[in-house]
Amino acid sequence: MIPVSTFAGRRVALFGLGGSGLATAEALAAGGADVTAFDDAAASCERARARGLALADLNEADWSTFTALVLAPGVPLTHPAPHWTVERAAAAGIPVIGDIELFCRERRARAPKSPFVAITGTNGKSTTTALIAHLLREAGCTVELGGNIGTAILSLEPPAPERVHVVECSSYQIDLAPSLDPSVGVLLNVTPDHLDRHGTMDHYAAVKARLVDGADQAVIAVEDDWTRAIAARLAGEGRAAITVRSDSSDAARYGADGAHLRHDGKVFADLAGVASLRGRHNAQNALAAAAAVAALGVAHDVIARGLATFPGLAHRMEPLGSFRHVAFVNDSKATNADSTDKALSAFQDGIFWILGGKQKEGGIASLNGFFAKIDKAYLIGDATEAFAATLEGRVPYVRCGTLDRAVAAAADDALASTAAEAVVLLSPACASFDQYPNFEARGEHFRKLVAAWLAQHGAGAR
C-alpha cells in the first residue's frame, strides 16, 4: 500500500467503494486523512465496513469541511451529467480528484525523481503496459505494475528512486488527475469510445492528451489524426515527442518494416515468430514499449531479447492451442470494432470468427474490408440480428446465440475446411454485458470450451 500522507490531518470525501475505491480509502486513512466514504450501492458499503472503514452518508455531510472529493473512476465527472457528489464539491469550491492524482502528489512528496511510466490509448494500452513492465524486469529493474490494468495504483509499493511504477491510465482516471506528471507518458491511439462519458471526440482526445502534456518525455504513436495533431502541438511548443509508427520505418523515430522494428532506420528487433505480438497493432504496441523503456536507459539489445520472451496477456490475441491445421485465439478484450480490426488484420485468411454481445455505436460496418477473408461468422448475444444484417450477402454466418454453440460449430467447420491454416477467433467487437459480467468471464468461458474441444480430439491446450 501507498499511505497518502499528503492529506494527513485533513478531511476528505470519497465516493465509490469498488476495488480501487476501497484501496484509495484505506490508503488515505493509513496516511492520516479523515475519510468520509460513501457509495450508493449497499453491497459496496457492506464490503467497506467488513474491511474496517468508517462510512457516512455524504448526502448529509457538511461539505464546507472537506478538502477534496476523491471520486472512483467509474462515477461520471462531466457526462452524461455530473454525479451529485461532483455538484456538491463544485458548490463547496473543492477539487474533484482520483487515485492517480493521489499517487502523483505522493510521488512528488516522497521521491519526485522516481521513474514513472504512464500509458493510455483507446486500444492496446494493457498489452503495452504489461510489455513495458516485462522489458524493464528483463533489464533488471524493480517494477510495480498497476492502474487500469488490474491492481489499484495505491495498492502498490510506494515511489522510490530504485522502483519503477508502470501504470495504465484510462480516460476516466486521467480526467481525475489534473497534475499527472509521469517520467515517460505513452499515447497509443485515439479512436471513438466512451463518448457517453466525455461528450465529444474533441473532449475525449483532450483528456487523453493530458497524459503526454504533463510527461517529462512523451512517446506518441502517430497513426491517427488525433495523435498526429497532439504530437504536432507538442512540437510547436518546443516539446517534441518520440514518435512511433507501425506502418513505416521512415515517418517516425521508431517504425516497423513488416516484423522488423527500427529505430532511426536501423533494425533493432524482429517480431517474427512472437505469437503474443502478432499483427500490426502489436507492432505499434512493441514500438511504443521499446521507445518508453529506451527513454529510461534500457539498451536495444535488451529490448530485443525481452520482446522475444513476452508471454502476452490473457484475452488479448491469446493463443490457446491448436489441432492439426486449426488454431484457437482468445481476443475477448476486443469490445469494439476498432479492436477487432486489429485482430482480423493479423491473419491472412481461413478465419472462423465468433462475434457479438452488447453492441457499441457503429456496429461492425467499419470491418467491411476484412469480410473477404472470413470463411464464416458465428453470431452470439444481443447484437446477432444487427450483425446478421451487416454480414448478409458478404460473409456466410450462423446464428448461434451462445458461446458454447459458437465454439462447437466454428471448431468443427475449421477442422473440415481446406484452409492450410485456419483460426477460430473470438473477437466479439462488443461489450460482454448481455451474457457475461465482463470480458474476462467471456474469455475464461471460451478458454474452457476450447480446452474441452482439444481434449476431445486428443490435443492439448496451451
Write down the CATH class of the largest domain: Alpha Beta
Integer-rounded radius of gyration: 23 Å
Mean pLDDT: 94
Number of strands: 19
How many angstroms does the end-to-end distance come to?
Answer: 34 Å
Main β-sheet description: 9 strands, mixed
Which regions contain 5 or more consecutive residues with pLDDT less than 50? none
Supply the CATH superfamily name of the largest domain: Mur-like, catalytic domain
Counting helices, strands and paired strands, the structural category is alpha/beta
Number of helices: 15
Helix content estimate? 25-40%
Strand percentage, roughly?
15-25%
Number of domains: 3
Topology (SSEs and partners):
Elements: E1 11-15, H1 19-30, E2 34-38, H2 42-50, E3 68-71, H3 84-92, E4 96-97, H4 99-110, E5 116-120, H5 125-138, E6 142-147, E7 163-168, H6 171-175, E8 184-187, H7 195-198, H8 201-213, E9 217-221, H9 225-236, E10 242-245, E11 254-257, E12 260-263, E13 266-270, H10 280-295, H11 300-308, E14 318-323, E15 326-330, H12 337-344, E16 351-356, E17 374-380, H13 384-391, E18 397-401, H14 403-416, E19 422-426, H15 439-456
What descriptors fit this protein?
single chain, 3 domains, 19 strands, alpha/beta, 462 residues, nine-stranded mixed sheet, six-stranded mixed sheet, Protein-Tyrosine Phosphatase, Chain A, UDP-N-acetylmuramoyl-L-alanine:D-glutamate ligase, Rossmann fold
Describe this structure in words.
Residues 1-25 form the signal peptide. It is a single chain. By secondary structure, this protein is an alpha/beta fold. The chain folds into three domains: 8-97, 3-Layer(aba) Sandwich (Rossmann fold); 100-308, UDP-N-acetylmuramoyl-L-alanine:D-glutamate ligase (3-Layer(aba) Sandwich); 318-456, Mur ligase, C-terminal domain (Protein-Tyrosine Phosphatase, Chain A). Helix content is 35%, strand content 20%. It is built from 15 helices and 19 strands. The protein has helices at 19-30, 42-50, 84-92, 99-110, 125-138, 171-175, 195-198, 201-213, 225-236, 280-295, 300-308, 337-344, 384-391, 403-416, 439-456, and strands spanning 11-15, 34-38, 68-71, 96-97, 116-120, 142-147, 163-168, 184-187, 217-221, 242-245, 254-257, 260-263, 266-270, 318-323, 326-330, 351-356, 374-380, 397-401, 422-426. The strands form three sheets. Strands 6-7-5-8-9-10-11-12-13 form a nine-stranded mixed sheet, with helices on both faces. It has a six-stranded mixed sheet with strand order 14-15-19-16-17-18, with helices on both faces. Strand 14 and strand 15 (326-330) form a beta hairpin. Helix 5 packs across helix 10 (280-295). It is globular and about 70 Å long.
